[in-house]
């Protein structure tokens, strides 16, 4: 039987890639506290504008990252939307490039609920103290009793609690469905059992 660390992945952009458009939330989107609360579809899509000031035109891509949160095309969203994942919603998103070009039909991975699923005592932590409100995790161990109690279809995407820098854990079932849409020159998946803090830069 595989460990949970073998089932979950982290995803990062490849550092130094010259063709990344960086997006920041508009003021209105920021006020809606996306990524921290369940969003209301009646309020319309959230919106990210290019923050690169590079003059790069928007290139259609099925998978992007806003920080650690995926923003995906409708094609990728269809691979995920049938799942009933706890504390998660695919939310309609509009991307605006440097030249003002609007790109609709995108979806933000709004993982608005955190799960206390990291075994910090068994994980390798930089300067660990149980009193800290967040921890810099170097290698991960997950809480078996927590994940065992949640049906797999409800924990395919997890936002772990008390992890410095945040980020999402994607189950292998999700990764297998979306990886063919992801540009391997721009983004990398790391299996949790093989991941160590800083690997994205190596």
- Sheet with most strands: 6 strands, mixed
The separation of the N and C termini measures 30 Å
Q: What would the average pLDDT be, to the nearest integer?
A: 91
Question: What's the helix count?
Answer: 4
SSE ordering: EEHEEEHEEEEEHEEHE
* Rg calc: 17 Å
Please give the order of strands in the largest beta sheet: 2-3-6-7-5-4
Number of strands: 13
Oligomerization state: single chain
Shape: globular
Low-confidence regions = none
What share of residues is helical?
A: 10-25%
- Protein structure class: mainly beta
Beta-strand portion reads: 25-35%
Question: How would you characterize the overall build of this protein?
Answer:
By secondary structure, this protein is mainly beta. The chain contains 4 helices and 13 strands. It has helices at 27-31, 74-80, 144-148, 172-178; strands spanning 8-13, 23-25, 46-50, 63-66, 69-73, 88-96, 102-111, 114-115, 124-126, 136-139, 157-160, 169-171, 187-191. A 6-stranded mixed beta sheet has the order 2-3-6-7-5-4. The protein is globular and about 50 Å long.
């Amino acid at each position: 039987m595989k460990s949970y660390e073998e089932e979950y992945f982290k995803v990062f952009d490849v550092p130094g890639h010259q063709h990344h458009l960086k997006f920041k939330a508009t003021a209105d989107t920021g006020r809606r506290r996306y990524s921290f609360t369940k969003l209301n579809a009646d309020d319309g899509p959230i919106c990210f504008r290019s923050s690169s000031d590079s003059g790069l035109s928007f290139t259609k891509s099925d998978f992007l990252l806003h920080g650690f949160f995926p923003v995906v095309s409708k094609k990728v969203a269809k691979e995920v939307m049938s799942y009933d994942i706890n504390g998660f919603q695919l939310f309609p998103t509009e991307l605006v490039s440097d030249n003002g070009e609007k790109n609709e039909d995108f979806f933000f991975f709004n993982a608005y609920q955190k799960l206390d699923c990291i075994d910090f005592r068994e994980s390798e932590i930089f300067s660990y103290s149980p009193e800290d409100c967040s921890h810099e995790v170097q290698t991960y161990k997950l809480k078996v009793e927590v994940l065992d109690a949640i049906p797999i279809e409800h924990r395919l995407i997890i936002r772990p609690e008390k992890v410095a820098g945040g980020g999402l854990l994607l189950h292998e079932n999700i990764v297998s469905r979306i990886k063919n849409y992801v540009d391997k020159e721009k983004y990398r998946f790391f299996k949790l059992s093989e991941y160590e803090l800083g690997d994205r830069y190596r």
